[in-house]
Design brief:
CATH architecture of the largest domain: 3-Layer(aba) Sandwich
Helix content: 40-55%
Radius of gyration: 22 Å
CATH superfamily of the largest domain: Periplasmic binding protein-like II
Oligomer: single chain
Order of helices and strands: HEHEHEHHHEHHEEHHHEHEEHHEHHEHH
CATH topology of the largest domain: D-Maltodextrin-Binding Protein, domain 2
Mean pLDDT: 91
Low-confidence stretches: 4-25
Distance between the termini: 29 Å
Number of strands: 11
CATH class of the largest domain: Alpha Beta
Structural class: alpha/beta
């Protein structure tokens, strides 16, 4: 699963895609297919390459229940393509996305159908899924998606580089992370960076404000649903941590180093190449390492927490793949049966988790003895069950609030923001204006 930030233009397109869809009603309920019905279900997802092949295998296990239903899985379909298909009157029957941040728009606009009627008809108990994960598939009481698998984010560290630097304990606080990063950093003779202990650049790989924020206890919105960054001690502490590490490396030096780093989902990933000693990443990185860089000696741990927030020890950011029925789907009844199969069937979740190393999202799948759990993967299983997961608040403006903060982080790290508090006030105003304009 991947986390990417869509641009504000894409969000604007999404916001106007299907207004007036009536998503807040109970949702229409279509009859399930008969055992011998012949039809084709089209599924859009963003998966590619190895993961796309494994998800296709999981989708095709549905044929054990409905042998005459064919599954047409089309990978590399992002949210813009899904929304364009809905607007064009030719949507897939089932849509999957990694962009949980667009959930609020999908639900409020009606571009994804309300699943309430199906859940009630089939007496589905969603308490088998942790609250934080349920939260990112619901928007103000409208549930237009279910979680298929979850992503949980933690610390990856290179054991050989730790040993060479004489570091015997994994950092537990962000102060310890800062000092470890300095000790792990290696310079070339000309002063350029050879190995960075921890890269503070945002947004880059999974250095994104929303993924860091839970470790500092930093919330995006207040109780009234307004942006609440300015005046927040937590956001201030997070950005000050970032600035300390940027100052240690030197911004220009960091930019030159970052420009030479490999693609995130290739074997050239900087951690897999030994150019980053520590990173924040999701559990799925364990599968990429096993497949692309099996000789790396690495460990995983909860991402360090702010010393001012000891309650965030053992906490983590969580997101994941969500799956729903787009507006206008040709086979909604069969689509719902496929969604149940992919999100609630223990065997399906366990097999898919074993294949692509995402965290299975139900209690039964987590406890299944067939679940393959390496020591590195166990970290994320423990975080998932630890009761301290945070997810992004769904909003009707998609990921515009996240993009605004990451854009600010890029300006801040470059030294182009003179006053942190004043800069955050401007971000608050930008987000609150967008929320007001959404009309939802």
């Amino acid at each position: 699963m991947r986390k990417t930030l869509a641009g504000l233009t894409a969000v604007a397109v999404l916001t106007t895609a299907c207004a007036g869809g009536g998503a807040r009603g109970s949702g229409a309920v279509a009859e399930p297919p008969k055992k011998d019905d012949k039809l084709t279900l089209t599924v859009f997802s963003k998966y590619s390459d190895r993961e796309e092949r494994e998800v296709t295998k999981a989708l095709n296990t549905f044929k054990a229940k409905f042998p005459n239903i064919e599954i047409k899985h089309e990978g590399n379909q992002d949210d813009d393509k899904i929304t364009g298909a809905v607007r064009g009157g030719n949507p897939p029957d089932v849509a999957m996305t990694f962009m949980t941040d667009n959930l609020g728009q999908f639900c409020s606009s009606g571009s994804w159908q309300n699943l309430k009627g199906y859940l009630e008809r089939d007496k589905i108990d969603l308490n088998v899924i942790p609250q934080a994960v349920r939260d990112y598939t619901d928007f103000k009481g409208t549930r237009c998606a279910l979680p298929m698998l979850a992503d949980v984010y933690g610390l990856f560290y290179n054991k050989d580089q730790f040993a060479a630097a004489g570091i015997t304990e994994v950092p537990k606080t962000t102060d310890q992370l800062l000092e470890a990063a300095k000790r792990l950093t290696q310079k070339n003779p000309d002063g350029s960076i050879k190995v960075a202990g921890f890269l503070p650049s945002m947004p880059f790989y999974n250095n994104q404000a929303q993924i860091w924020a839970p470790s500092w206890g930093a919330r995006y919105l207040d109780a009234n649903g307004k942006s609440a960054l300015a005046g927040s001690a937590e956001w201030k502490a997070m950005f000050e941590f970032q600035r300390k590490l940027v100052d240690f490396y030197g911004y220009d030096n960091l930019e030159r180093f970052r420009a030479g780093l490999g693609q995130e989902y290739s074997a050239d990933h900087a951690f897999q190449q030994g150019k980053l000693a520590m990173i924040i990443d999701g559990e799925y990185r364990t599968a990429f390492i096993a497949d692309q860089s099996p000789n790396i000696s690495f460990g995983t741990a909860p991402f360090p927490h702010s010393p001012a927030r000891p309650d965030r020890e053992g906490g983590a950011f969580a997101t994941g793949t969500i799956i729903g029925i787009p507006k206008g789907a040709k086979n909604p009844g069969a689509a719902w049966e496929l969604i149940k199969h992919m999100t609630l069937e223990t065997d399906t979740l366990v097999d898919l988790s074993n294949a692509i190393k995402n965290v299975p999202s139900t209690d039964a799948a987590l406890k299944d003895p067939r679940l393959q759990v390496t020591p590195q993967f166990k970290t994320f299983i423990d975080l998932y069950g630890g009761g301290k997961l945070w997810s992004n608040p769904p909003t009707p403006i998609g990921d515009a609030h996240l993009k605004a903060v990451n854009d600010f982080a890029a300006e801040w790290q470059a030294g182009r923001v003179a006053n942190l508090d004043e800069g955050l006030k401007k971000v608050d105003q930008q987000i609150n204006d967008a929320l007001a304009q959404s009309g939802r």
